[in-house]
């Protein structure tokens, strides 16, 4: 893609700006612009779309998103060392890249983009799950984003798409299953990153469901926390602190079942009986 956007190869960018990867910031960079394009394409057509990207780093994925025609990219980066490299991309795509320096966990995302917004990111592993949960939790639904295309460690990706009776099913699977349609897009091996992480990564694509089962987020959180906090125990035991058998009876759920056997609909029923 160096030929496609005329910008220098990422390896040169990293060297010129002294962007040696910092583990504490979850920095595992993607230097293969074909791969970053594949991730950006997974988000679907980007014309007229504002893309929010968390952690652009030296800008490999940012460049792919811009080359694929996104109207605007708003990128939040915590490491100030990356800003000069990102400024070069901004200069190449005038008016189409805004870089916000700061911690994505503290950003008010709803105020960032105008019009349809899609989130695309190779997330730092240490804050990735928390960011996803934050994007799934607003009371107002549908949310400000039209889709999310996100890279996670494979183990987290499996938890995101897991449903009942799956070993990876847990609080994250219930939350994602309740409010989104989530699918695994493709795996990315460790050697695709610089430096390579220890584990395989996976790109996940999520779209909001139009009509999630009506249910208060806080009640659902309470139920899944209690149920999966002791996932091997029967629900009559694990749910004792929040109502136990009486709650299960009200929701019409067999108290001898275990958390991992309950569907998202059943968790919502329990939350609504709380
Ligand atoms: N997007 C680049 C790529 O694909 O090569 C870099 C991805 S790297 C896995 C994660 C990036 O997130 C790094 O650039 C890191 O500095 C940044 N980062 C880490 N924690 C952050 C936070 N709390 N808020 C914003 N950016 C963060």
From TrEMBL:
PROSITE patterns: RRNA_A_DIMETH (PS01131), SAM_RNA_A_N6_MT (PS51689). Belongs to the class I-like SAM-binding methyltransferase superfamily. rRNA adenine N(6)-methyltransferase family. RsmA subfamily. It catalyses: adenosine(1518)/adenosine(1519) in 16S rRNA + 4 S-adenosyl-L-methionine = N(6)-dimethyladenosine(1518)/N(6)-dimethyladenosine(1519) in 16S rRNA + 4 S-adenosyl-L-homocysteine + 4 H(+). The keyword RNA-binding applies. It is found in: Cytoplasm. GO terms for molecular function: 16S rRNA (adenine(1518)-N(6)/adenine(1519)-N(6))-dimethyltransferase activity; RNA binding. Its EC number is 2.1.1.182. It comes from Rhizobium fredii. This is Ribosomal RNA small subunit methyltransferase A. The keyword Secreted does not apply. Residues 35-210 form the Ribosomal RNA adenine methylase transferase N-terminal domain. Its main location: cytoplasm. One of its GO terms (cellular component) is cytosol. It holds the Pfam family RrnaAD. PANTHER family: DIMETHYLADENOSINE TRANSFERASE, DIMETHYLADENOSINE TRANSFERASE-RELATED. Keywords: Cytoplasm, Methyltransferase, RNA-binding, rRNA processing, S-adenosyl-L-methionine, Transferase. S-adenosyl-L-methionine binds at residues 28, 30, 55, 77, 103, 122. Specifically dimethylates two adjacent adenosines (A1518 and A1519) in the loop of a conserved hairpin near the 3'-end of 16S rRNA in the 30S particle. May play a critical role in biogenesis of 30S subunits. It comes from the Bacteria.
């Amino acid at each position: 893609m160096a030929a496609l956007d005329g910008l220098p190869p990422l390896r040169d960018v990293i060297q010129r700006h002294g962007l040696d990867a910092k583990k504490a910031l979850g920095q595992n960079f993607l230097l293969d612009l074909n791969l970053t394009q594949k991730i950006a394409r997974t988000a679907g057509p980007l014309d007229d779309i504002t893309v929010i990207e968390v952690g652009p780093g030296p800008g490999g994925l940012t460049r792919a998103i811009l080359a694929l025609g996104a109207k605007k990219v708003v990128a939040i980066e915590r490491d100030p060392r990356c800003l000069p490299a990102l400024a070069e991309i901004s200069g190449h795509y005038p008016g189409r890249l805004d870089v916000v320096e700061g911690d994505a966990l503290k950003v008010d995302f709803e105020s960032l983009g105008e019009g349809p917004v899609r989130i695309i990111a190779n997330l730092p592993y240490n804050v990735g799950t928390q960011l996803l949960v934050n994007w799934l939790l607003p009371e107002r639904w549908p949310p400000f984003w039209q889709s999310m295309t996100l890279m996670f460690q494979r183990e987290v990706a499996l938890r995101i798409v897991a449903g009942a009776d799956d070993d990876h099913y847990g609080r994250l699977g219930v939350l994602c299953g309740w409010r989104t349609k989530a699918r695994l897009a493709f795996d990315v091996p460790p050697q695709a990153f610089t430096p390579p992480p220890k584990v395989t990564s996976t790109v996940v694509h999520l779209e909001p469901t139009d009509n999630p089962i009506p249910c208060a987020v806080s009640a659902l959180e309470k139920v899944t926390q209690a149920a999966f906090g002791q996932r091997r125990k029967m629900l009559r035991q694990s749910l004792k602190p929040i109502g136990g058998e009486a709650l299960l009876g009200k929701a019409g759920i067999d108290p001898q079942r275990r958390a991992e056997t309950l569907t998202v609909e059943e968790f919502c029923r329990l939350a609504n009986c709380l």
